[in-house]
Amino acid sequence: MTITQLKRKFLEDLGDNYPKEEILSFFNLLAAHILELSRLQMALEPNKKLSEAEINEFGQALEKLASFEPIQYIIGETEFFSLNFKVAPGVLIPRPETEELVQWILDEVSLQQKSSLKILDIGTGSGCIPISIKKHLPKAQISAIDISEEALEIANLNAEQNEVSVEFIQQDILSAEKLPQQFDIIVSNPPYVRELEKAEMHQNVLQYEPETALYVKDENPLLFYKKITKLAQEGLAKNGLLFFEINQYLGEETKAMVQDHGFDAKLRKDMFGNFRMLKAQKR
């Protein structure tokens, strides 16, 4: 079987589940992963014959995609902030919107012009936020907390892979009485999707991504934000900043809650025009 024939099979078998452009994107990612071929190389060698082992590997991936398994879990990695990150079932797949949160933090840091910063990421998952920040702020002291041992194992591997040093801590932030020290910046992308919003989620998210990293109860959707904001009252240094990725439907509610805890707060829209980020500073 050639590359062209295999690509045609992907388009035929997955056409009912995904748009054409997404299927082609899947195929290109798999070709890079399995064959170590770029899109240009594939275009130059469309009739390149594949080995039986290669065809079998593509076939297994095709079955998984037909069952809506995320391509990132299939190939075991994803790109975030121009860096490669390992991901696995049980660890939330980084989103493009979160890259915008990281960029906002870096922009604010450049304005402050502080030489050494202490930064904490709460609910780190794959470690994409602290590792990306550390890559751009090598002098910063960065710590990251997560409740999941599995997620922290992946995060540690990602730190090693990207050649940065981040202190990872296993802890349930909801049971924490205080933070380990004061920080100049606290950032968190905690669970914020309400149960009632599950109907809006794609099958690949519903079936495969970790529920504990995504969902909160409808009756208390700001659970994590309230706890982290309360901890930040004492855990932020003077002029320290608090950054959240937030539920687009609860922007004003989140902002009001943060303000009620003694912070000035500002919302920001993401690339899709949704209020997805919040920055706060203690009054």
Automatic annotation (TrEMBL):
Q: Where is each Methyltransferase small domain found?
A: 111-202
**Which CDD domains does the protein's record reference?**
AdoMet_MTases
Listed EC numbers: 2.1.1.297
Instruction: Tell me the superkingdom of the source.
Output: Bacteria
Q: Domain named Release factor glutamine methyltransferase N-terminal: which ranges? A: 9-76
Q: Which InterPro entries match?
A: DNA_methylase_N6_adenine_CS, HemK-like, N5-glutamine_MTase, PrmC_N, RF_methyltr_PrmC, SAM-dependent_MTases_sf, Small_mtfrase_dom
Alphabetic keyword roster = Methyltransferase, S-adenosyl-L-methionine, Transferase
Instruction: Give me the residues that bind S-adenosyl-L-methionine, please.
Output: G123, T124, G125, S126, G127, D146, N189
- Residues involved in substrate binding: N189, P190, P191, Y192
A Gene Ontology BP annotation from the UniProt entry: methylation
> Which Gene Ontology molecular function entries are recorded, alphabetically?
nucleic acid binding; peptide chain release factor N(5)-glutamine methyltransferase activity
Pfam families membership:
MTS, PrmC_N
Reaction(s) catalysed by this chain, per the record, are: L-glutaminyl-[peptide chain release factor] + S-adenosyl-L-methionine = N(5)-methyl-L-glutaminyl-[peptide chain release factor] + S-adenosyl-L-homocysteine + H(+)
Protein task: Methylates the class 1 translation termination release factors RF1/PrfA and RF2/PrfB on the glutamine residue of the universally conserved GGQ motif.
- HAMAP family assigned to the protein according to its UniProt record, in alphabetical order: RF_methyltr_PrmC
Protein family: Belongs to the protein N5-glutamine methyltransferase family. PrmC subfamily.
Supply the PANTHER family for this chain. HEMK METHYLTRANSFERASE, MTRF1L RELEASE FACTOR GLUTAMINE METHYLTRANSFERASE
Protein name in UniProt: Release factor glutamine methyltransferase
What species is given as this protein's source?
Zunongwangia mangrovi
Q: Which gene encodes it?
A: prmC
